[in-house]
Amino acid sequence: MNIEAPIIPGESAAGVQLGSPIEEILKEQKTHFISEEIVNHLVPLAIVTRYRSAMVDLWVREGIVDQIMVHDGYRGKLMDKIGLGSTIADIEMQIDAWEEDEEDNLVIRDLPGVGFEIEGYFPDLKDPAFRHAPIKDIYVFQANKELSSLTEFERTSATT
Description:
There is one protein chain. With 160 residues, the chain is an alpha+beta fold. It has a single domain, classed as protein yfey like fold (Sandwich). Helices cover 16% and strands 30% of the residues. It is built from three helices and ten strands; from the N terminus they run ββαββββαββββα. The radius of gyration is 15 Å and the shape is globular.
């Protein structure tokens, strides 16, 4: 696992490629992962295994990496510009406008395959402080998909 590898929307983070077999990653990595199976009873056949480590989490469906999240000290950057600790204002200045997708995930307009979460709770995204809250998690997912409601369920259930 390379905690300085670039974040490539719709492709990879931490040197892990979307679509990779989890067994290969587990054999190659010295990183310790804790796995947990997550079942969303609201979605048929929605069984996902989340592999958590100190700075990188992997969501795996049917043995294949489906989503990557970097967090807590990961040093790689998106487009050599945006990383953990950057802000919405940084994204606007250095890449493009941000928006909320249909599932209320924060994404960068015209840059599919990447989303993020910020520190703090802002019920009104027009609050000026929102633009300066640091990014705490960056997600990489297939560009033809969006962060799904299942992913939100997974994140919620993993933290409760």
